[in-house]
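Progress narrative, work stream C.
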Amino acid sequence: MKTYFPSDLKCVVLLGVDFDGPCHEVGRGIAPLGIHSWGRYSAKRGVPRHLEMFQRLGVPCTFFVPGYDAEQYPDLVKAIDSSGCEVAAHGYLHEAWEMPFEEEEALLRKTNDILGNLLGKQVLGWRSPSGRKSDRTMQVLKSMGYIYDSSDKDYDLPYRLRFSDGAGGTNNLIELPNNTYSLDDFPFYKFSHTPPSEVRDQWIDEFEHIYNSDGFFVLTVHPRSGWGSGTPSRSRAFEEVIRHIQQYDGVRFFSCAGFAQWCLANPHYLEEACHT
């Protein structure tokens, strides 16, 4: 019998939407036009479609938004926030390249300022674009007031991530690991071109096993067309997964920030890992 969470909380569900608009192409030096215009679909159709669905189903969600996309679509980012969903950071140009720490820090702070000024409040979390982190990334996030990271792939449960503060001491953030293969739309739609019905069945199967074991389900989608879940049939598959989950007892949907705050208030349920 698992005891990771209280008895009345059988399974935590976190839904994450990685905005990934035209920043994805612009960051690679590609004009987001013609065959490369997939990212523009996010703001035009994908995000509005997902927002409507979350409101209709009554579930929270976290949108991880790159700074460039927030600059291009400020009203939409404000609409995400006003809907009750969370806006978190996701790089500036969805950086997929190695960079010196000074450049990384400048981009982290740039996106934080863009989102904070746009929303009029503190951003609380970050998900790495393309999974890249340096040994000092967490120090910058902590200094900006972030309480969680959702980038690592090394565990099935949330944990306290302890790291050097750069001055001989330690700090910590809540780590919300995300599985970017079996619980992410990108590999299914980008590489294997899996039909939406099969993706739905895979995610439902993953949920049912997680519900009966660790009880921590983190699903990531992208509202782009092409390899994302913003189009009608893929959005429907996403909705069917949510509706299936809602049938189970003891399931609770959180935003990432909402659950990170729960973790901070209930640290005895978490393990701790050290990152150097």
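Work stream C, second folded protein:
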Amino acid sequence: MPETLFSLVFVTAAPFWFLMIVLPAWSWTHRIVSSPLIAAPAAAIYAVLAIPRLGDLLPAVARPTIDSVTELLATPDGTALGWAHFIAFDLFVGRWMYLDARERGIHPVLMAPILLLTILLGPLGFLLYLAVRFLPVGKRRETREAS
């Protein structure tokens, strides 16, 4: 079962990444991505993997050591659990970045590679976006609408 859930979790997130990267200006993209529930399917898969393993999981995360986390993740169940965690949280962060970039008027062409980097190497995409959002690359939506 962990192999199936490992494969399924990205499938639950991929359509939303596609919308944010390939169809960012489509009106339905904003409507869909505005809901934080888009990360719920990946989070639900995480729950399916985590709840039966709480006895092993809680001690490993309550008092983490490199050995206890390695032991947890070095199994098919642990790998699927970690992957589901990455996918759910990366999507939630990517969603925030997409919405924040729209609010700031950051062009979708600039956001596409940042979102792609977030899919592949989550924290690096997040850090890059944090740097970009403070550059004078866009205008706040309210400012553009007022002029």
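Confidence is low (pLDDT under 50) at residues 142-147. No further action is required on this item.
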